[in-house]
User: What shape does this take?
Amino acid sequence: MSIKAPYPELDEFLTAIGDAGRRLSEIEATGGAAGNISVYIGWSIEPRRKFPIAETIELPRPVPELANKSFLVTGSGRRLREIIQDPAANLGCVTVNEGGQAGTLYTSPRRPGQRVMSVRDLSAGKSVGGVSWRTNVTGTVAHRTTSSMRRR
Assistant: This one.
């Protein structure tokens, strides 16, 4: 589905993700209100007002077709019902860098703990900090947090 300009602002996404997390928890669609949400944003956004901490992360596979595109992702160990209370503390924003070899993970100083998420190359089991990415056969990107990978 394509969205036409004017595009939604970052705050609108944060509110929508928080509402979705709360609703999934209310209807008991997730065990213990845990779960993961990721949202692809196909246009340029500025995450630094909400997520001022930036770190470069290695992506497990090059995804040059996603250069300069962003994803909002839930943090490892976050509960969906908690997102609405403080979206910036419970989410991160990953922007894929030019060339698609690395990305920038933006987070909030209010994130719980020092470790937010982890990037893991599913084929090699390599953990390098950030978000767990995998590219499926259609070329789209999905993510899973460390907690969901441990259950498998």
Summary: The helical segments are 10-26, 80-83, 87-90, 146-150.
